[in-house]
């Protein structure tokens, strides 16, 4: 018989697992990893909100995507265009970024799997006599290691030609040049930290769902058990 067990710690672990998976996925897909050098706008370009000249635009570059501003000569205005610059894996600008993409993708796949499984932990608490929380916690720890490897390798690719075109001639491995880090990089770091927090907190979720109070509720014949 399926016993639905909901505790504060198990629910918090489930929510954090889902948030971490989405945060890493969004960061990976974003083009806002590097913010390039400011490109001055033409004196003819007018900001529709202020009526004055537009501020210099800073293009952004991701692991496999980019955002840039394209000109419309007929209308004397520019639109921002975002999309992948690499149509195939081999076209990613740097070998280090290719490795980063592999490690991040592996970590994100594991996190998404754990996030999916975590929803069912309210009803299923063990797999082959193994605690599902402990198994998921171990997988989250492994995913965190993949994410760390990806984030360490990513700055090594700042010396590629693509990065130099955005960050200037002084850009090199682990040196930003004229670029700055975008929100996607910081989100990936934050998600990695939360991944390890989830891995540790999974043990607390397992303790909460296997406590004496839960066993007493099960012995009383209750199918829905909610505890603080």
UniProtKB/TrEMBL annotation:
InterPro entries linked: LHFPL
One term under GO cellular component: membrane
Keywords assigned by UniProt, alphabetized: Fertilization, Membrane, Transmembrane, Transmembrane helix
GO biological process: single fertilization
Protein origin, superkingdom: Eukaryota
Key word Transmembrane present: yes
Topology versus the membrane: Multi-pass membrane protein
Keyword Transmembrane annotated: yes
Protein's recorded name: LHPL2 protein
Main localisation: membrane
Compartments, record wording: Membrane
Spans through the membrane: 12-35, 96-120, 132-154, 183-203
Organism encoding this protein: Anthoscopus minutus (Southern penduline-tit)
Similarity-based family: Belongs to the LHFP family.
């Amino acid at each position: 018989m399926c016993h639905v067990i909901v505790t504060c710690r198990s629910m918090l672990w489930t929510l954090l697992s889902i948030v971490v998976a989405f945060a890493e996925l969004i960061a990976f897909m974003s083009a806002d990893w590097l913010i390039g050098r400011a490109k001055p706008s033409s004196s003819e370009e007018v900001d529709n909100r202020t009526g004055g000249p537009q501020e210099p635009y800073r293009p952004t570059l991701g692991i496999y995507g980019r955002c840039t501003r394209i000109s419309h000569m007929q209308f004397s205005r520019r639109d921002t265009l975002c999309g992948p610059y690499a149509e195939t894996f081999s076209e990613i600008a740097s070998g280090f970024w290719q490795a980063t993409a592999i490690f991040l993708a592996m970590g994100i796949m594991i996190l998404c799997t754990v996030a999916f499984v975590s929803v069912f932990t309210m009803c299923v608490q063990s797999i082959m006599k193994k605690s599902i929380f402990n198994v998921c916690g171990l997988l989250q720890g492994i995913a965190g290691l993949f994410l760390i490897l990806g984030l360490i390798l990513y700055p090594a690719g700042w010396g590629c030609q693509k990065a130099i075109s955005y960050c200037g001639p002084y850009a090199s491995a682990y040196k930003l040049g004229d670029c700055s880090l975008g929100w996607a990089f910081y989100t990936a770091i934050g998600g990695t930290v939360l991944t390890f927090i989830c891995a540790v907190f999974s043990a607390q979720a397992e303790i909460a769902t296997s406590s004496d109070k839960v066993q007493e509720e099960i012995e009383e014949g209750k199918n829905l058990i909610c505890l603080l």
